[in-house]
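Notes, p. 3: input format for complexes.
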Amino acid sequence: METGKITTTKKAEILDKQKKYLFPNHLLYYTEPLPLERGEGLYVWDVEGRKYLDFFGGILTTSVGHNRPEVTQAVQEQAGKLIHSSTLYPNEAHVNLAEKMAHLAPGRIQLSYFTTSGTDADETAVMLARTHTGNQEIIALRHGYSGRSAMGMSLTGHSPWRIGGTHILGIKHAINPYCYRCPLKLQYPSCGMACAHDVEDVIRTTTSGRIAAFLAEPIQGVGGFITPPPEYFKIVAEIIRHFGGLFISDEVQTGFGRTGGKWFGIEHWEVEPDIMTMAKGIANGFPLGNTMTRPDIAASTTGAGLTISTFGGNPVACAASLATMEVLEKEAGPQHVARVGKVLRTGLERLMEKHAFIGDVRGMGLMQGLEFVRDRKSKEPAPKATSHFMELCRNEGLLIGKGGLYGNVIRIAPPMTASIEDVEEALELMGRALTQVGVD
Ligand SMILES: Cc1ncc(COP(=O)(O)O)c(C=O)c1O
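Output follows (440 residues plus pyridoxal-5'-phosphate):
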């Protein structure tokens, strides 16, 4: 058919230009990359007109679904008035969004500094912690992910994500609460939370004893949705504060209701963070990062030096974010996510009962992971089967993500507007794909 020919040519052209004009290290999903053309709600279409149920949302970013009319309208209206101002001039969208963020954030967290990405948000958090405490050293976690700048890569606890090497000194990586593969080879709860207590040892033995901050994700995203035991962060927060550090909760993936029941991941663990970082789902796909803190901490930046963000607080991105937050509050808030997430989790546990190569199901809300292993006893990671499953899901018309240090964790995180029916459809497609997975 003529149309088929045209779209096939378009696909070939896109893939050809991708190869010719973009760095080869752009990580692309699938053996044959998937050029997308448009989206609506939970669905996206590729350039050949094939429809997919999107259960990864552009890496947990399209919080309220693709092409959501309220967001599109807010963007169009703002773009018709003012596209750019820089942080040198106040603008209405910027301050209104800051006000909304202050209402959503827990505890005494109130002030925002908007930037353009999660990397930038984490950079700002570290700068803030160092300015406030006067200390330099940071404790991060193994298997954590913090972005692609030199600081982001240095904070990251995965060798594959440190392209070019790590150069920033003063960052130490504590062992993470990865119960499925306990780094201390212990069992929860008889372990006595040894991994959390080890943070004290890390500080005493590998730092000057005066730290600026501890930075961690409430559930490790890129790490493979690694979910800590409930008491982990409470123990760590106490240790961190004893050594003069601030607690930075990286909510880039866990923010805005994603984990169900709470607006932010850290709220599940009953720790009041000193600083929070956000991005991804904050603006439904518009580039926006945010670093939030208490007024007394933010005050320490006054007179400490100059900083600007040319694109930070961009009026269009802020308008998109405000509209995204309003949709979430209206119809896809934390309680909705908890309800729909429960159906997803129960369905995944059923799939695990049927397939021995699923070694673990974990996560919270609409952030659920499946860890693939060659067998449950050895727990040897099965990255090939994981990639195969992703390809099979694509063939079934379902997009999902992948993660984990060993590339063997499936990440499932649809827009938070997903309904129970959407989840049931995804489970059905995954069920079909799973029966075709070969574990060698
Ligand atoms: C927890 C976390 N922090 C920071 C980042 C960096 O965000 P960005 O890719 O927007 O720079 C990511 C990105 O995946 C992330 O998952």
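The radius of gyration is 22 Å.
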